[in-house]
Structure formats: structure tokens, C-alpha cells
């Protein structure tokens, strides 16, 4: 990242993985209670911010299928401006790498990176908890990225507790399908009664397995998505024959991306070379903290 008085350049908006995802209930308002562990990655979109002194908030790049007024980065900047009453403005330039509808948190991470970056660029100095409260208005995953550490999450994803996770390398494969999260959450066949666990149980299994909970839990959405989207099922079946991964491949979030963990980046890269040519993929490594973590107290 490059920082000047009037700009922040090359800000990574990191992707996330859900190492497991349990749906434990459904609220009267339709929202779901869940439990998950979020893992940050060193791969994601890159954002650039330039201060404007006329108060305007603009996005200078086109994002396929996302008008500027609906873009979470623009909405995050407008929310922060309204909340604080600042007269500052900003130009936002997005280098989009994370596919949409993939369960990698791309839009949510972009929004959180915007909140953190503008907290610095606009010299607002808001505390992290205040930014997390604002972030929840933008989406259930946004508070996690503002929280900025790997976390055990509950509620709708906003109740967060930091967890230490071992360094790992991942091969992430994204089929060329877009899986709408709302569609999967509304499926009648989706189980919503997984027994709640505790962070203590998760950490105990992690300790028992030398720091890596290889097979903890499951993704409750995976079977539903695989049943509706043949390409996701195809990726999961392909990974069944990969013997060098630490644990069986698993879908992240509501899909469509599928990931497998490896002990080394080299092992992940070898497996990547064996993928069908038309599959999108990335080899990425774990992060302990968000690159802009220091921009909020």
C-alpha cells in the first residue's frame, strides 16, 4: 500500500473462506442464525482512494453488473460521510479480481476496506466497534472484515471472537456460475437446526489436531447448492481424487467457490496445474490480520 496526504493506493480487500458454516436457526424476520470460522486470505480486490475536496463520492472504474449507486464501496463511503458529517469526498478506483456470487466476500470486503481506508484518509479516527456497527448496515459479512482478524462468528455473522489459525495455503476453484445467497437461504430443503457448538469445542479440536481442525463441522449450504448447480457438484467430485490436501474440499459461504487446504503453496500449485482448463482458480495463503487493521483503534 502507498499512502500520501491525499491518497491511499493499492489497498488489498482480502477474500475470506468459511472453514465451516452451520445454520442453527431462523429468526422471525427471516434472518438465519449461524456459526462459522472466517479465514482471511492474501488474495482479493485492490482499491485506490483519492481525496476529493468538493465532498463528492465517485467510482472511477466500471464494475460489470454493478451500477455505481449500488456499489458497496460507494454506499460505505456515503454511510460514513453521513454518520460523521464530514465535508470530505473521495474517488474510488476498483481492480476487481474476486468473482461475484462466489462466497468469497468480495463486495463485503470492498465495503469494509472503504470504511477503514476513509477512516484514515478523512482523519476521522473512529474506533473499530463504531465502524463495525456501521458495517452491519451494509451486510452481514462486512463487520468481520472491519474486525480484521480471523474469527469465530455467531448471530448473523456479526458476533465475533478472534481465533488463532495456523498458516495454510489454499487452492480456490470457482465454477462459472453465480449463486445468489438469498436463493439458497430460502430453499425449503436447507437444514436450519444444526446443533450449536462453542468456540471452546472448536479450539479444543484444533489443539488436538496440531493446530488445524481438518474436518470440523460442515457447510450446511453445500448439499443444497451442489444439488441446484451441477458445476459446483463437479468441482467437489474432482477434488475427491486429490490426496495431497489436508482435508476434503469444502464450499465457502453460499458458494460457488470450493477450496482445499494444503501444507505448502507448492503442493497447491501442483494440483492447480491439473485442473480443467476452463475452471477459474487461485492459489492463496492465509492472513492473520486485515492489511488495513491499523486504521482503526
Automatic annotation (TrEMBL):
Gene3D superfamilies referenced in this protein's UniProt entry, alphabetically: 3.30.230.10, GHMP kinase, C-terminal domain (3.30.70.890)
Enzyme class (EC, first level): transferase
Q: Where is the GHMP kinase C-terminal domain?
A: 217-279
Q: In which pathway does it act?
A: Isoprenoid biosynthesis; isopentenyl diphosphate biosynthesis via DXP pathway; isopentenyl diphosphate from 1-deoxy-D-xylulose 5-phosphate: step 3/6
Reactions accelerated catalytically: 4-CDP-2-C-methyl-D-erythritol + ATP = 4-CDP-2-C-methyl-D-erythritol 2-phosphate + ADP + H(+)
Q: Its Gene Ontology molecular function terms?
A: 4-(cytidine 5'-diphospho)-2-C-methyl-D-erythritol kinase activity; ATP binding
Instruction: Provide this UniProt record's keywords sorted from A to Z.
Output: ATP-binding, Isoprene biosynthesis, Kinase, Nucleotide-binding, Transferase
Q: Does the keyword ATP-binding apply?
A: yes
Under the heading InterPro entries, the entry gives:
GHMP_kinase_C_dom (IPR013750), GHMP_kinase_C_sf (IPR036554), GHMP_kinase_N_dom (IPR006204), IspE (IPR004424), Ribosomal_Su5_D2-typ_SF (IPR020568), Ribsml_uS5_D2-typ_fold_subgr (IPR014721)
Q: What is its EC number?
A: 2.7.1.148
Chain positions recorded as ATP binding sites: 99-109
Tell me which Gene Ontology terms the entry assigns under biological process. isopentenyl diphosphate biosynthetic process, methylerythritol 4-phosphate pathway; terpenoid biosynthetic process
Q: Where is the GHMP kinase N-terminal domain?
A: 72-149
Q: Where is the signal peptide?
A: none
List of catalytic residues: 16, 141
Q: What does this protein do?
A: Catalyzes the phosphorylation of the position 2 hydroxy group of 4-diphosphocytidyl-2C-methyl-D-erythritol.
Cite the PANTHER family for this sequence. Answer: 4-DIPHOSPHOCYTIDYL-2-C-METHYL-D-ERYTHRITOL KINASE, CHLOROPLASTIC (PTHR43527)
| Family as reported in the entry's similarity comment | Belongs to the GHMP kinase family. IspE subfamily.
Q: What is this protein called?
A: 4-diphosphocytidyl-2-C-methyl-D-erythritol kinase
Amino acid at each position: 500500500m502507498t499512502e500520501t496526504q491525499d491518497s491511499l493506493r493499492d489497498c488489498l480487500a482480502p477474500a475470506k473462506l468459511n472453514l465451516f458454516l452451520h445454520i442453527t436457526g431462523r429468526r422471525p424476520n427471516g434472518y438465519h442464525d449461524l456459526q462459522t470460522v472466517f479465514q482471511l486470505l492474501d488474495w482479493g480486490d485492490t482499491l485506490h482512494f483519492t481525496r476529493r475536496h468538493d465532498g463528492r463520492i465517485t467510482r472511477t472504474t466500471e464494475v460489470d453488473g454493478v451500477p455505481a449507486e449500488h456499489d458497496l464501496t460507494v454506499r460505505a463511503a456515503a454511510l460514513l460521510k453521513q454518520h460523521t458529517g464530514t465535508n470530505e469526498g473521495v474517488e474510488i478506483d476498483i481492480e476487481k479480481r474476486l468473482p461475484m456470487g462466489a462466497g468469497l466476500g468480495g463486495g463485503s470486503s470492498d465495503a469494509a476496506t472503504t470504511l477503514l481506508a476513509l477512516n484514515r484518509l478523512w482523519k476521522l479516527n473512529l474506533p473499530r466497534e463504531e465502524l463495525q456497527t456501521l458495517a452491519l448496515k451494509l451486510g452481514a459479512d462486512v463487520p468481520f472484515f472491519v474486525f480484521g482478524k480471523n474469527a469465530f462468528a455467531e448471530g448473523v455473522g456479526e458476533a465475533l471472537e478472534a481465533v488463532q489459525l495456523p498458516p495454510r495455503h489454499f487452492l480456490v476453484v470457482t465454477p462459472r456460475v453465480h449463486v445468489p445467497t438469498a436463493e439458497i437461504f430460502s430453499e425449503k430443503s436447507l437444514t436450519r437446526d444444526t446443533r450449536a457448538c462453542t468456540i471452546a469445542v472448536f479450539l479444543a479440536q484444533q489443539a488436538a489436531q496440531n493446530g488445524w481442525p481438518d474436518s470440523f463441522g460442515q457447510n450446511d449450504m453445500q448439499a443444497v447448492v451442489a444439488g441446484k448447480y451441477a458445476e459446483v457438484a463437479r468441482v467437489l467430485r474432482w477434488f475427491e481424487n486429490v490426496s495431497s490436501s489436508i482435508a476434503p474440499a469444502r464450499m465457502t459461504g453460499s458458494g460457488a467457490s470450493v477450496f482445499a487446504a494444503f501444507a505448502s503453496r507448492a503442493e497447491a500449485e501442483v494440483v492447480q496445474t491439473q485442473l480443467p482448463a476452463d475452471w477459474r482458480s487461485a492459489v492463496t495463503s492465509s492472513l492473520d490480520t486485515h492489511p488495513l487493521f491499523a486504521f482503526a483503534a
